[in-house]
């Protein structure tokens, strides 16, 4: 292996290792996030609820009845987790059965 190839290999290995570490840190953080409170001003502005079935589907912009955080394009974290991070509410966890007015379909 040439010196340049070996240097490139070491750089790529370091970048890959750093990426794995960051992914692990993000997953660990997701479990530690505080739950989004219903009286949070941002949650109220977005009409967030912990239980999507409590919202009349006809009141939604897109009145599909099966909208929940678990099937929203903006949810993060792991499938099956009850509380997960959301791109709209950084630093907080939303309920997988919840809903807000920003719900977007997974493409
Ligand atoms: Fe739930 Fe999607 Fe609203 Fe986030 S943006 S709270 S995942 S419906």
Structure description:
This protein is mainly α. It has a single domain, classed as High-Potential Iron-Sulfur Protein, Chain A. Helix content is 33%, strand content 6%. The protein contains two helices and two strands. Strands 1-2 form a two-stranded antiparallel sheet. The chain is globular, with a radius of gyration of 19 Å. The relative contact order is 0.18. The structure holds iron/sulfur cluster (SF4).
Summarize the structure.
The chain is mostly helical. The chain has helices at 3-32, 41-45, and strands at 83-85, 93-95.
Radius of gyration: 19 Å
- Largest sheet, spatial ordering of strands: 1-2
Main sheet makeup: 2 strands, antiparallel
Structural class, from helix and strand content?
A: mainly alpha
Mean pLDDT: 80
Spans where pLDDT lies below 50 across 5 or more residues: 7-25
In CATH, what is the class? Few Secondary Structures
Name the features.
107 residues, mainly alpha, High-Potential Iron-Sulfur Protein, Chain A, two-stranded antiparallel sheet, 2 strands, binds iron/sulfur cluster
List the helices and strands and how they pair.
Blueprint: H1 3-32, H2 41-45, E1 83-85, E2 93-95
Antiparallel strand pairs: 1-2
The structure holds iron/sulfur cluster.
């Amino acid at each position: 292996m040439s010196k340049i190839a070996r240097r490139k290999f070491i750089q790529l290995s370091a970048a890959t290792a750093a990426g794995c570490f960051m992914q692990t840190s993000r997953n660990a953080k997701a479990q530690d996030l505080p739950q989004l409170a219903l009286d949070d001003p941002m949650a109220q502005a977005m009409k967030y609820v912990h239980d999507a079935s409590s919202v009349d589907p006809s009141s939604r912009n897109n009145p599909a009845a099966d909208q929940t955080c678990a099937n929203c394009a903006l949810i993060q974290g792991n499938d099956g987790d009850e509380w997960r991070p959301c791109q709209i509410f950084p630093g907080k966890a939303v309920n997988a059965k919840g809903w807000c007015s920003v719900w977007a379909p997974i493409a």
